[in-house]
Amino acid sequence: MLVWKANVDGLCDYFNDTWLRFRGRTLEQESGEGWSEGVHPADLGECLENRRALFGMRAWFRMKYRLRRHDGIWRWVRDAGVPIYAPDGRFSGFLGTCVEVHESRERKAKEPIPVVSTCSWCHRVKEDDGKWEEMERYVVRHAAINFTHGICPECLRVQDPPGE
After folding, report:
1. E-assigned strand segments in the chain
2. Tell me: domain 2-109, CATH 3.10.450.50, correct?
3. Model pTM?
């Protein structure tokens, strides 16, 4: 497990030996925002933006990005950070861990994407038994989500245009 710690300013001041061996760099090189030199350029902007926003809120976070290993190979990692507090309750920074998830992500990317037949008119979904079911009911039964209902601003403008 790759372990890091950041101070109250969000600058990293600790990396465990596993992190340093993974990156092939010294503590001095990784400290501050030096660690970010190892984040894939396509992931860097979002990674830093998310991290700064969540540091500011002092909220735990979890994200995935590619991190360059000591041999130059990019590996997907799942990074999770939690705020830490001193015994007197003062915010002290963040403690985090990165776990390499490259193989599972690559394996998942190779899995076929399921296809669901839907009616282009009424948006019902065709079940395996040939019956047609409302999209919302289908999704609730096949995914771990529920729905709430409201009216989006665009539909509200159409339904109740201003000045009428």
Report:
1. 2-6, 12-15, 61-68, 74-85, 91-100, 125-126, 132-133
2. no
3. 0.63
